Amino acid sequence: MLSEFGLIDQYFYRHYSDNKSVKLGIGDDAAITTMPPGTDQVIAIDSLVGDVHFRKSTSAYLIAWKALAVNLSDLAAMGATPSWFTLALTMPDVDEAWLTDFSKGLFDLAERFKISLIGGDTTRGPLAVSIQVAGFVPEGKALLRSGARPGDHVFVTGHIGDGRAGLAVQQRGARDDAEYYLLQRLQQPDPRVIFGQSLIGVANACIDISDGLLADISHVLDASEVGAFIELDKIPVSNACKDKYKSLGLSRLQLAQGGDDYELVFTVPEEKLDTFLSACDEQATDVTEIGIIKEEKGLRCYQDNQAVALNQIGYQHF
Ligand code: ADP
Ligand code: MG
Known about the structure:
The chain is an alpha+beta fold. The protein contains 10 helices and 13 strands.
């Protein structure tokens, strides 16, 4: 049986990769970090609890991946460059096969963005994973929810609704390639970290889509004290989702209300539109304009030029 120190050494310390911001990582009572001059530090934390946020039968690889991915998505939404993270792991017992898989999922994603694990805590109890991340942005330049202005164009990255469709697939089991794709989009999101950084100085406001596109847009509208017109027909949907959403018992509106997409929704002012769109073209970034910010408060959605009634907008945690 591994001791607590043996466990940390084997599964977390051995994989420790060095980020310039880390002066002292795992092993002492606390870690020591620093930041590039002229930057603000950006910090987020998110917890995933077994049987609430994932099924306990989900592979440890995917649990770890998602726990880090949802945090990296928050950094992406602020336009931050990731620097380090800490991990609080609560588990019922020491299962070495589980830990091997967990550690692999964690570091496969961490290495992509050169973010270092600098410390954490390991305790016994019902399975839960908390990850705290830190990154940095040029001083005063972080992308906030509160910056949207009337006339801004509203964009999203990638495709919306795969998360909701993936959840429906998970409930009944995947049966073909399209369904496996949707399930993978739910379980192994690809946070828009690099793209988020490129929005600094371009987007007026930004948020990542975790609660559902419409709920998350509403957070931007509330923080910015503005409203928006959103055209549901313009919301980009993947081919797999297009093929499957009806047979999964979902509507286009439900795709826009579902959560777990981990794409970004952001607003770009008219005067920056041309530069923004040509940069997207050059980098082959898939962005889609879905609406416009208005002075009159509230979210108004349209489908085939008809107003759509919105009742429950997104995922509620309580
Ligand atoms: P202390 O008793 O001083 O809080 P611990 O015994 O909890 O220290 O941890 C020893 C070292 O291992 C610390 O540097 C801590 O940050 C690190 N650590 C503990 N658990 C984890 C974990 N799950 N992931 C990464 N580092 C961890
Ligand atoms: Mg100590």
